[in-house]
Amino acid sequence: MCIRDRAELLPELISQIPWPKSMRWGDIGFSFVRPIHWVLALFDSMLIPFEVAGLRSGNKTQGHRFMAPGEVEVKGVEDYLEIMRKAWVMVDPQDRQNRVVEVAKEAAREVGGVPTKDPELVSIVANLVEFPSALCGTFEKKFLELPEEVLITAMREHQRYFAVRDSNGALMPNFVTINNTIPKDPDVVRKGNERVLRARLADADFFFKEDRKRPLIDRLEELKGVIYQADLGTSYQKVMRFSELADFLAQATAPMKRGDISLACRLCKCDLVTHMVDEFPSLQGKMGEIYARLDGHPEEVCVAIREHYMPLRAGGELPKSVIGAVVGIADRIDTIVGCFAVGLEPTGTADPFALRRHALAILRILEEFSAPVYLTDFIEKAAQILDCLLYTSDAADEFRRCRSRWSP
Residue 397 — pLDDT band, cuts 50, 70, 90? Predict the structure, then answer.
């Protein structure tokens, strides 16, 4: 491919890069993840001339905005990597990730601890900075009374901080923050981060104490005010459906645990209406487990509240308890049957309710537990329950029209 061909292709390729969110700037009518200020385009040492976003490509780039501002000329790939490193920019993402891990460990060692292992957070942080540096800060010991999951999530999701553990694995009143510059006065930066985190943890402490004023089971009625899906009713209606479905499955797989399975079904969605999950959606299931345990429910039921969401992703960890497996299968079957019933089937390009992932999760769980379940019977039971509990006439009519297309 000649230089001219590359010059024609590159603007189109750049414009087609997919981003979760894009933005526009000025009046050029071009969208990208961030405004483009310059374009460096070389093949070996030859310039590829083209225009994109109102800018002409060239052989110059810029270093770190604060630590090495100004243009630098580039002659080739090796030259580029070395020049950028001298200009306080680590181009290779893996190099940045390795440095994030290294400087985080160094910072945590100052207080005799180690940063929590979190490869996903390492990747996130590495893509937010050009040349990582780290500082270790502290927070009040009283916040260690909060559940570990709450502390870590508050630090991780809001501030992108790494929690710090001691040699025994216990959380310490410390955190590690990753910066994009080498600060002139580290104490000023550290105190600023401590002040911000203190407010976040105070909020989390308030939410936790407010949630604890009522037993988790008391929140079941509140699910009547939470719409699960317009045609499939509220989250309360969904709980009632898959509770009956779980009991049907329990009769065949775990008859001695029907009572615990029924309780787990009624509890497993209650944390959706807590202050803590409203603030930190990623804690759903985990907070339900914590609150149920504090309320004195059986340990196996508490664990099942978290496990019924597992696996969280393709190839993810499966539930270990029978209760968690049964509740998780029932919940997913209800979702799949309900969505197909009202015409929300996945297409080749869209699967907004993750029905394919739910189906694969069901198969993996059944295989793991060697459950003696005929899916046709189970699906038919879910359809019968849905038919009985659909209260909206339009939804019921749509369900009956669609049912003949997929019912076994």
Answer: low
The rounded distance, in Å, linking the Cα atoms of 209 and 275 is 10
Instruction: Single out the residue of 21, 56, 26 nearest to residue 39, CA to CA.
Output: 56
CB distance 56 to 18 below 8 Å: no
Q: Give phi and psi for 213, each to the nearest 5.
A: -75, -15
- Residue 39's closest CA among 65, 67, 7, 69? 7
Compute the distance between CA of residue 156 and CA of residue 23 in angstroms, rounded to an integer. Answer: 26
| Alpha carbon separation from 390 to 234, 238, 247, 320, 381 (Å, rounded) | 10, 10, 19, 33, 14
Who contacts 192 (Cβ-Cβ below 8 Å, separation ≥6)? none
Beta bridge partners, 114, equal 165
- Residue pLDDT, tens place only, 213-258: 999 999 999 999 999 988 888 999 999 999 999 999 998 888 899 9
CA distance 64 to 70: 9
- For helices 322-341 and 375-389, give the axis angle rounded to 10 degrees: 60
At residue 128, the 3 state secondary structure works out as coil
CA 233/CA 214 separation, integer angstroms: 25
Q: How far apart are the first and last CA of the chain?
A: 55
Q: Give me the half-sphere count of Cα atoms (radius 13 Å) on the Cβ side of residue 391.
A: 9
132-159 pLDDT, tens per residue? 999 999 999 999 999 999 999 999 988 9
Of 82, 7, 181, 93, nearest to 72 (Cα)?
82
162: nearest Cα among 191, 192, 208, 123: 123
- Which residue in the block uniquely carries the two structure tokens 């030859």? 46
**Contact yes or no for 164/114 (Cβ under 8 A):** yes
Residues 6 or more apart in contact with residue 9 via CB below 8 angstroms? none
Query: Is the per-residue pLDDT at 374 higher than 90?
Result: no
Q: Is 153 within 8 Å of 282 (Cβ atoms)?
A: yes
Phi, psi of 21 (to 5 degrees): -140, 140
Average pLDDT score over the chain: 89
Please state, in angstroms and rounded to a whole number, the distance separating the CA atoms of residues 264 and 262.
5
What's the rounded Cα separation, in Å, for the pair 398 and 341? Answer: 7
What lies within 8 Å, CB to CB, of 132 at 6+ separation is 90, 96, 99, 100, 103, 125, 126, 178, 179, 180
Provide the token pair at 237. Answer: 């209606």
Cite the DSSP H helix spans in 110-169: 119-126, 148-153, 159
